[in-house]
């Protein structure tokens, strides 16, 4: 039995509220159980310097946690003068994941920055950031299309992410913090809406895992992604 009482393939309750920030071109608040992340998208007409004159657009991301997103207060990284390695790794993952769902030629020479701020953390913050970040990106692109700034939709597919792992010897989906902190194997799966793999991060935390177990986790991930994509569609309807 999982600590939450969920069955092995059961996701936490998912909700996505759009339009939560007045000034951002796209925004949402995604809740995956007790993990809550505020996601916003900002459009800049100029691409990064390394893309000048290439005709290509860019999607990037920044990620952070509020001091009391966890059960003890964390110092703001700005107060420490630098981002942690974890923060840098997560925001690069978010950016890579979202770019995989975008036709950068159709986007044109502009940059869209996705900001993901964790309000409350209970495991899976990077996955929630990717899933909610895609909704914010979709809303920002919708504004570009509506204004005529874009004539071709650059978004080619949904992008969502879910954690899976082996807890107490059983493969499970959508780990909350008590499960994540004790999982023998921990993984994050980023997929498109059509089940194309974008990125898989897996590691043995306390015990090695077999190829068969990895396949079971991928099956669980595909089911979880289907639920997340359905939530994205419902939020945008």
Automatic annotation (TrEMBL):
Keywords: Nucleotidyltransferase, RNA-binding, rRNA processing, Transferase, tRNA processing, tRNA-binding. It is an enzyme of class 2 (transferase). Its EC number is 2.7.7.56. GO terms for biological process: rRNA 3'-end processing; rRNA catabolic process; tRNA processing. Belongs to the RNase PH family. Homohexameric ring arranged as a trimer of dimers. Residues 10-140, 159-222 form the Exoribonuclease phosphorolytic domain. Phosphorolytic 3'-5' exoribonuclease that plays an important role in tRNA 3'-end maturation. Removes nucleotide residues following the 3'-CCA terminus of tRNAs; can also add nucleotides to the ends of RNA molecules by using nucleoside diphosphates as substrates, but this may not be physiologically important. Probably plays a role in initiation of 16S rRNA degradation (leading to ribosome degradation) during starvation. Phosphate binds at residues 86, 124-126. This is Ribonuclease PH. PANTHER family: EXOSOME COMPLEX COMPONENT, EXOSOME COMPLEX COMPONENT RRP41. InterPro entries: ExoRNase_PH_dom1, ExoRNase_PH_dom2, ExoRNase_PH_dom2_sf, PNPase/RNase_PH_dom_sf, Ribosomal_Su5_D2-typ_SF, RNase_PH, RNase_PH_bac-type, RNase_PH_CS. The gene is rph. The keyword RNA-binding applies. It catalyses: tRNA(n+1) + phosphate = tRNA(n) + a ribonucleoside 5'-diphosphate.
């Amino acid at each position: 039995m999982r600590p939450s009482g969920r069955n092995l393939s059961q996701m936490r309750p998912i909700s996505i509220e759009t339009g939560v920030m007045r000034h951002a071109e796209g925004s949402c608040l995604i809740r995956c159980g007790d993990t809550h992340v505020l996601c916003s998208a900002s459009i800049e007409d100029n691409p990064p310097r390394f893309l000048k004159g290439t005709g290509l657009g860019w999607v990037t991301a920044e990620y952070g946690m509020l001091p009391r997103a966890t059960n003890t207060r964390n110092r703001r990284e700005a107060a420490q003068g630098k981002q942690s390695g974890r923060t840098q790794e997560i925001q690069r993952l978010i950016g890579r994941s979202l770019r995989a769902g975008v036709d950068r030629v159709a986007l044109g020479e502009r940059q869209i920055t996705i900001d993901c701020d964790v309000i409350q953390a209970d495991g899976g913050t990077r996955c929630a950031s990717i899933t909610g970040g895609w909704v914010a990106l979709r809303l920002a692109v919708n504004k570009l299309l509506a204004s005529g700034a874009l004539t071709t939709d650059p978004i080619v597919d949904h992008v969502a992410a879910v954690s899976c792992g082996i807890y107490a010897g059983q493969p499970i989906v959508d780990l909350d913090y008590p499960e994540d902190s004790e999982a023998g194997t921990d993984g994050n799966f980023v997929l498109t809406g059509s089940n194309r793999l974008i990125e898989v991060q897996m590691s043995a935390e306390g015990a090695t895992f077999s190829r068969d177990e990895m396949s079971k986790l991928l099956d669980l991930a595909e089911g979880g992604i289907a639920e997340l994509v359905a939530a994205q569609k419902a939020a945008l309807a």
